[in-house]
Amino acid sequence: METIKEIKEMFENIDVLTVREGLAFYSLCKENYSLTEDYIKQKKHNQRGKYIQYAECVGHSTSNSEGEPNQRFHFLESWALRSLLDGTINLDESFYAVVNSKIKCKELILWMLEAAGCAPKSIEEFEKTWHKNCTIGLFVSEDDLTKCIKERMLEMRDNTNIEQYNIAVAAFRVRSKCS
Fold it and tell me: What is the C-alpha to C-alpha distance for residues 25 and 42, in angstroms, rounded to an integer?
């Protein structure tokens, strides 16, 4: 297992996250965070999205009262996996550029911000900033999202299943060995 110092040194050389690294980070994140959960409970949850249909198709729960399907499923399984398989994204692209241009779902953007530790302070603040065709870029810059994700990866080291954490760190290591 790598030390925090070794991981920090590896992160120092990363200015722009790849899709591989973004997916590795979000694979460690919780299914639900309080702001996103509150937002969904206020009946603002999208019940017609393609990810709802996909969840039903694969037998995943679709209970709105329970916030299902959760946004982790939405991002990793419904969006990212299917996008990788159909070739609309690839692992070496800029993570920020991809999510900023392709993800338009309110709940998913809020979950991504909250998981990375850079969410608005309240649902009201989120709603005030949101407008039709909004993207994650309205809420956070690429530099700030990258910084937040690297900080959260360090915080997660001692609070996450170590095997899962090591797999996620390996995604970052791929780049540092190839650079």
Answer: 28
pLDDT at 179 over 80: no
**38-59 tens-digit pLDDT:** 888 876 555 666 777 887 888 8
> How many angstroms separate the CA atoms of 53 and 59, rounded?
10
Instruction: Report the candidate in 152, 164, 15 with the shortest Cα–Cα distance to residue 76.
Output: 164
Q: In terms of pTM, does the model score above 0.90?
A: no
Percentage of the chain surpassing pLDDT 70? 89
Match 């973004």 to its residue by tokens: 22
57 alpha carbon, distance to own chain's centre = 23
The helix (H) or strand (E) run that includes residue 25 is helix 19-27
CA angle 141, 94, 106 (to 5 degrees): 55
Taking the CA atoms of residue 26, residue 97, residue 47 and residue 130 in that order, the dihedral angle to the nearest 10 degrees is: 110
Amino acid at 25: F
pLDDT at 26: 94
Q: What is the DSSP string of 100-167?
A: HHH---HHHHHHHHHHHT---SSHHHHHHH--TT--GGGT--HHHHHHHHHHHHHHHTTTS-HHHHHH
